[in-house]
Fold this protein.
Amino acid sequence: MSQHFSIAEENYIKIIYHLQQTDDNVNTNEVAAALNTKAASVTDMLKKLKQKKILNYEKYQGFRLSEAGEKIALAIIRKHRLWEFFLVEKLQFGWDEVHEVAEELEHITSKKLIDRLDVFLGNPKFDPHGDPIPDSNGKLPHQPQINLIDLALNKLAEVSAVGSQSKELLDLLKHKKIRIGTQLEVNKKFAFDHSIEIKIVGQTSFNISQQLAQTLFVKPLNK
Amino acid sequence: MSQHFSIAEENYIKIIYHLQQTDDNVNTNEVAAALNTKAASVTDMLKKLKQKKILNYEKYQGFRLSEAGEKIALAIIRKHRLWEFFLVEKLQFGWDEVHEVAEELEHITSKKLIDRLDVFLGNPKFDPHGDPIPDSNGKLPHQPQINLIDLALNKLAEVSAVGSQSKELLDLLKHKKIRIGTQLEVNKKFAFDHSIEIKIVGQTSFNISQQLAQTLFVKPLNK
DNA sequence: TAAATATTTTAGATTTGTCTAAAATTATTT
DNA sequence: AAATAATTTTAGACAAATCTAAAATATTTA
């Protein structure tokens, strides 16, 4: 029946999925960089994935996952995000320390396990970083969020997701006391460096860089 | 620092640990049979484990884990049994369907994860099959008791421990008026469903399921 | 558009864990 | 204690996933 994939294959599938969200054609070097490996190794794996009908790929022409490949990617992402939710909600991990552990847990194969875990956690729709969790059919919940940098002035909004899971970013957010669900508004935008002044509800306002504002996503609240 | 072991190595370490509990010298064929592999493959791995100081091994002379090896084995067994407990208590798996999933989960490396899971589960001392769970230092809980299912017929015994603290189990035990110190004997064992008929001192006898009998531990009394 | 540069693929090696078949060693029988 | 049987190890091969170095192709630039 359904094929089995090695951990190495799964890691390629997942990375290619993420890369093709922004690029319409993924290329070898990007994947090599993301997986911390060499271009030659990537080519070898691409051939294998193509042969397994997971990948649409022609030599030198770039590649994308096939429909079957996307389904597999979403199943892995579902596992990753549900485990992250578990680690934070049930085992009191910080949201900045769950990523590596979830990288291992996402390769546990039992479908029954993950569907039961989903129920046990109360069918969460978003992981601790605000990323949407696919349901057991691979459907992603829709979330109408915008980039913080595009938020209108003095409009209340709620932080709904972060653009990366890097230690550096999470450390900065912890320090600024910004987390998923934090309510804030933008008071001023500075043209000089594109930094913005924000005010978190119940705190005094402060400045954040353009770079930070671009990695934060918010859901406007109708006040 | 502390070495890292592959999944294959961990599986060998675990099997050798289990085998050396009953044999004083483990041999190649036993391991091959237990791991569903060939004797030649076992020999290859033995050399590697010896070189890593995990195994006391001389050609043709049989082998046992070194002290370091036993520590590693106990850490893996700890993970396996805690995950089994989690699956049964939190995700409503049947006690008979957890083994394969736990075989995968036991190789997740994070020590922090497993210690937090331990706390989350309430520091259980026995897994759903009644097997003792090593603590975070690798110490096994002392167990001078036997499983109720192994109690000889018509031999008086005293309930000394329960295999879990789950609400469901405790609810059932309350209803059946079974608590620590209760004196009882087994009158009959039924092969069909492995249920047993027990008689609590001063009460009429009744049947209990295999599952319940396996979560109860008793200390035989010399009457 | 031809040359220079960057990207991608191929060729051939390496490591891990496995295998089969044959040789070496140990254990058992008669 | 010699012959037979069983076990264990060695030798050599293979698949998966990786690597380096070189060749092939595509892209950019002058």
